[in-house]
Design brief:
Elements (H helix, E strand, L loop, with lengths): L1 H6 L10 H13 L3 H15 L4 E8 L2 E7 L9 H16 L4 E3 L7 H10 L3 E9 L2 E10 L7 H24 L3 H17 L4 H19 L1 E14 L3 E4 L4 E5 L7 E2 L4 E5 L2 H26 L3 H26 L2 E3 L4 E5 L9 E2 L4 E6 L4 E8 L11 E6 L2 E20 L2 E10 L11 E12 H20 L2
Antiparallel strand pairs: 1-2, 1-5, 3-4, 4-5, 6-15, 6-19, 7-14, 8-10, 8-13, 9-12, 10-11, 12-14, 15-18, 16-17, 16-19, 17-18
Helix pairs in contact: 2-3, 2-6, 3-6, 4-5, 9-10
Length: 465
């Protein structure tokens, strides 16, 4: 085919006409718009190649429209001439070849009609090709009695092959954006439904099947959220009095039993205070006996009160000494606290030293994006996968929704609590993973695109006055 032949590398021109061809191409490139480039090229070709007229036409649908004539910036009034030239161009395009009249071997009725109408001695039409596709044609006319020989036709073919893509690019750039869009869509449809382009057709078929599948198929809509395990009961163990840490070998993550010693506070000051109070009590008791022997009732009353005061202080000291050993209030795992690195450090009364959570009672905390909160309700179910147990999916049920949001990682999240149906022995408070809350059946297309459409609605509303 001619389009394929013209797309192939042409023989190199070695005679003195090569500079003229380069000049013609440069002239076409220098013009900013299609119409000026086509008219300047046609005029230059007519002068350089001794032609009475050179015409350039482009295909619109299946018919040629003459877009430029040599020595003429406007050709709207030459209807009969333009029709004859267009028919000659269409004749060459229909036969997919270069037509020369007078000549043999091809149908050239339109060319003969053009010659007779304008008293020309020779007419030649060469199709213009861009990307192996015929986009138009160039028609050369002579009335000086000189026919078109093979060398001249070959030269015209070189010119057409070089300037065709340039003119087509300028023509597209000069059209309205909407028209360019329609033309691009038309080109895609032509490749899609025309010959060749098997890969494009196969890709379009797969895309169509995928679209139909997504539009008709349904699936379970799940809201994904970061999750973490917490103990349902979490006891804080605090310092009973002001003091100093004496000993501790329990750390976060250790399993403890109820009553197990977690740490010990230094009791030396309390013991010294205990000895002091014991001595004072003994002294008051001795004075009390002497007062009784002397029948000094006033002194007896005073010393009796002091002895009672010493007893109360001793009881307080004994209670404090009993609490110098910090014990676990329940069996479970130590969630936080490590005093082994703080031996000898002072602690104040009420400071949290350890936190212990039981192993048999957990609650799951989900951080749900605020864009999904409208669909979340209690008693909904879902699945949890933890980082430490990626191969096991744990079922849960939503039990509580906290109506207060928190900002984190560039988004707003709500705290949603859930209860696990099963609690494997390997679970520990503080484990993290990903939870998915099941919200019912929806179309797959909607599941994968509703976030995008919601974002578009919000943006449209914010832009509207």
């Amino acid at each position: 085919m001619l389009a394929q032949k013209l797309a192939e590398p042409q023989p190199v021109i070695t005679d003195n006409r090569l500079p003229k061809i380069i000049e013609l191409v440069s002239l076409t490139l220098d013009q900013p718009h299609f119409q000026s480039a086509a008219t300047a090229l046609a005029t230059k070709l007519a002068v350089e190649l001794s032609c009475s007229r050179v015409s350039i036409g482009f295909l619109r649908s299946r018919f040629i429209t003459v877009r430029a004539l040599s020595h003429s910036a406007s050709h709207g009034v030459k209807t009969s001439l333009l029709r004859a030239i267009a028919e000659a161009m269409e004749e060459a395009i229909d036969q997919d070849t270069v037509l020369v009249c007078p000549g043999r071997g091809h149908v050239n009725i339109a060319h003969r009609t053009l010659m007779e109408q304008n008293r020309d001695t020779a007419v030649c039409s060469i199709p213009l090709v861009d990307d192996q596709r015929i986009i138009g044609a160039m028609t050369f006319e002579r009335n000086n009695g000189v026919a078109f020989d093979d060398n001249t036709v070959e030269l015209y073919t070189h010119v057409a092959n070089l300037v065709g893509p340039i003119l087509e690019l300028k023509r597209r750039n000069d059209t309205w954006p909407a028209i360019r869009l329609v033309q691009s869509l038309g080109g895609v449809l032509h490749r899609l439904f025309g010959a060749r382009h098997v890969t494009l057709k196969l890709g379009a078929l797969l895309l169509t099947l995928l679209t139909v599948f997504l539009a008709l198929a349904t699936g379970t809509w799940r809201v994904t959220a970061d999750a973490a395990l917490e103990g349902t009961i979490q006891r804080a163990i605090v310092a009973p009095i002001d003091g100093f840490i004496l000993d501790s070998d329990i750390r976060s993550g250790d399993l403890v039993q109820a009553g197990q010693v977690l740490g010990t506070l230094d009791d030396r000051e309390l013991k010294l205070e205990q000895q002091k109070l014991t001595s004072e009590k003994a002294r008051h008791a001795r004075e009390y006996r002497n007062a009784l022997a002397e029948h000094d009732r006033a002194q007896v009353s005073i010393l009796s009160a002091r002895i009672s005061q010493s007893d109360a202080q001793l009881q307080l000291i004994n209670k404090q000494l009993e609490r110098m050993q910090i014990t676990a209030p329940l069996s479970g795992v130590v969630v936080s606290g490590d005093l082994s690195q703080s031996l000898g450090s002072p602690v104040a009364r009420g400071d949290v030293l350890f936190e212990v959570a039981p192993l048999e009672a957990y609650r799951l905390v989900l951080r749900v994006d605020d864009r999904d909160m409208n669909e979340i309700a209690t008693r909904q179910t879902g699945k949890l996968k933890l980082s430490g147990l990626p191969g096991e999916a744990l079922a849960f049920e939503v039990s509580r929704i906290t109506p207060v949001s928190e900002s984190a990682d560039g988004g707003n999240y709500y705290r949603v609590e859930a209860q696990l149906h099963d609690t494997p022995a390997l679970l520990r408070p503080g484990m993290e993973g990903v939870g998915k809350i099941e919200l019912g059946e929806r179309r797959l297309f909607w599941i994968w695109t509703h976030r995008m459409f919601d974002w578009m609605k919000l943006k449209a509303w914010s832009w509207l006055p």
